[in-house]
Amino acid sequence: MNFKSILTTILVVALALGLGVGAGYLVRNSGLLGNGGGGGAVVTQGDYSSVYAKAGGEVVMYSLSTCPFCKQAREVLEKQNVKFVERIIDQDKDAKAEADGLKIKSVPTLYIGDQSLQGYDEAKLVELINAHGKAAKPAA
Question: DSSP state, 32?
């Protein structure tokens, strides 16, 4: 190999690494998947009675069928024996319309009591479940 081909190889590798790191940064900080936004999940206070009335449950989760964070949130809810309604926005046009109306920009988005949790953070989710007394006692 001559000097020119070695230099070209080094530049191509450096460019590929730079693009990979940049793409990873964008995915992590886009806010579209669970732990996006750089700071993890975001809890917001509000009156979500209309969400519960529309969905027909006291705990509501908006999710995507292919989202690994949504799957983890579902597993936490089930493990904690929480009765919840899941609205899968990529499989149900009514759920998609609701999510658009609520301006949901991150999944999973959960509504529990007077708080919403956008993104996935197991500790925050369990904290909300406990704070609002939504975990059901297992059948004896």
Answer: S
pLDDT of residue 37: 40
**pLDDT-flagged residues of the chain (< 70):** 1, 16-39, 137-140
User: What strands lie across the sheet with 85-88, from one edge to the other?
Assistant: 42-45, 115-118, 109-112, 59-63, 85-88
pLDDT for 7 equals 81
Are 80 and 48 in contact by the 8 Å Cβ rule? The answer is no
CA distance 30 to 22: 12
User: Which one, of 96, 40, 95, lies nearest residue 69 by Cα?
Assistant: 40
3-state secondary structure of 28: helix
User: Percentage of residues in the chain with pLDDT exceeding 90?
Assistant: 56
The answer to whether the bond into 68 is cis (omega within 30° of 0) is: no
Q: Which residue has the tokens 């230099």?
A: 7
Q: Helix, strand or coil for residue 107? A: strand
**pLDDT confidence of residue 121:** 95
Answer for the pair 31, 120: CB distance below 8 angstroms, yes or no: no
